[in-house]
Amino acid sequence: MKESQQPVHRAIKTFVLRQGRMTEAQQRDYDELSVHWCIPYMQTKLNFIDVFDNTNPVIVEIGFGMGKATAIIAEQNPDKNYLGIEVHTPGVGKLLGEIRNKDLHNLYIIQHDAMEVLETMLPDNSVAAFHVFFPDPWPKKKHHKRRLMQRPRTNLLASKLSAGGYIYMATDWEPYAEFALEELSQTEGLVNRYESYAPHQDWRPETRFEQKGLSAEREIRELIFEKAE
């Protein structure tokens, strides 16, 4: 087997799979709705037109947590398509309930490791934006290798963006914000929309992690990097 044909073994994950307890409602929604709104992980590229039945731009959110902000954004932007990636089943169940309650038709979920989804399921130059709201900062130095927003992971994100597409990240952990700013600035093909951090984006609803950060008197940092056209 040639080197280029070697399978990819991703030993370092950007997450730890927590054993969160599901509520009865989350379990019920997961059991009833996942068949309709969850896309199984597979080793083939998605055709977004087949998934959404339209040609609207596709925005991918990595690690949507319990999905509250995800559902609100999808509801407020029916002219855009949303694909949420999350590994934790309670959050998937919660967001499935929001999809039903809000009668959303522009939001689907993939429950799998986001990096593997990007590598195998998302076509190059196909994504209008990546949203990353308050990712795990992995504050200990020995765990920095797990951080999502670093090269070569940012190179992979950039390769999936269409021309003019963007990566948006918000964090309440200043060392991670500084780290991500440096990594994104050095990622080929990406350009910072602002000189440094972005101003607060009013389109993003406040998240539970953001509330915790503000309660701890931590400043929220936001980044927006675009793919050069």
Describe the structure.
The chain is α/β, with parallel strands linked by helices and 229 residues long. The protein has one domain (50-227): Vaccinia Virus protein VP39 (Rossmann fold). 33% of the residues lie in helices and 18% in strands. It contains eight helices and seven strands. A seven-stranded mixed β-sheet has the order 3-2-1-4-5-7-6, sandwiched between helices. Helix 1 (24-37) crosses helix 4. The longest helix has 14 residues, at 24-37. It is globular. It starts with 23 loop residues before the first helix and ends with a strand. The relative contact order is 0.15.
Question: What does the secondary structure layout of this molecule look like, with pairings?
Answer:
Elements (H helix, E strand, L loop, with lengths): L23 H14 L10 H5 L5 E5 L5 H9 L4 E5 L3 H13 L5 E4 L3 H7 L6 E7 L19 H8 E11 L2 H12 L4 E3 L15 H8 L5 E7 L2
Parallel strand pairs: 1-2, 1-4, 2-3, 4-5
Antiparallel strand pairs: 5-7, 6-7
| Tally of individual helices | 8
CATH superfamily label = Vaccinia Virus protein VP39
**Arithmetic mean of pLDDT:** 91
Query: What is the strand arrangement across the widest sheet?
Result: 3-2-1-4-5-7-6
- Report the principal-axis shape: globular
Q: What is the helical fraction, as a range of percent? A: 25-40%
Which CATH C-level class is it?
Alpha Beta
Q: Please count the beta strands (DSSP E, at least 2 residues each).
A: 7
Stated plainly, the CATH topology is called Rossmann fold
Give the termini separation. Answer: 37 Å
SSE succession: HHEHEHEHEHEHEHE
Radius of gyration: 17 Å
The name of the CATH architecture is: 3-Layer(aba) Sandwich
